């Protein structure tokens, strides 16, 4: 979907507010946006300060808007993806679990519909016993063994995403194995002469 939702943009009572939205974004973001780049625009709610849903002509224009959203940091205007109600529920659940994980000492963040928890282990330590039980959210555990950070590895992105949705309902934990380094063919020949 190439839709975005804008919050905090004050509009006048015009019926043709698309021009006003385009002018405001050109001024705030330094973007060259015109009314032809928008398929449609809807205003939700009543009053002057209400969310606006923009349907972009292309996914690329949506990407440009979201890339430049950092320029709005000190402003009262926010740009977000237009999420389905199911995605909104999933994000809310992940944010709730993120709020619980941080006070417990985990370095946690949300990335692509996963809650990532980083655990620091010294040499010879075992995983905490709390992790062996299944938490009520899909998580990916990144371990820091003796200072070396192991990155998460996804060999098959689609299967991981499908499992995350299933695990959200069942409450299972996803654990990621340490990243395996692949050597180039020329390095293999040097290390293993035949």
What layout of secondary structure does this protein have?
Layout: E1 3-7, H1 18-29, E2 38-43, E3 52-56, H2 59-67, E4 78-81, H3 85-101, E5 107-111, E6 114-121, H4 129-132, E7 139-145, E8 148-149, H5 157-170, E9 174-175, H6 185-191
Descriptive account of the structure:
With 194 residues, the protein is α+β, with helices and mostly antiparallel strands. The protein folds into two domains: 3-82, Alpha-Beta Plaits, CATH 3.30.70.330; 86-175, no CATH class. Helix content is 32%, strand content 23%. The chain has helices at residues 18-29, 59-67, 85-101, 129-132, 157-170, 185-191; strands spanning 3-7, 38-43, 52-56, 78-81, 107-111, 114-121, 139-145, 148-149, 174-175. Strands 5, 6, 7, 8 and 9 form a five-stranded mixed beta sheet that branches. The chain has a four-stranded antiparallel beta sheet with strand order 2-3-1-4. The longest helix is centred in the middle third of the chain and has 17 residues, at 85-101.
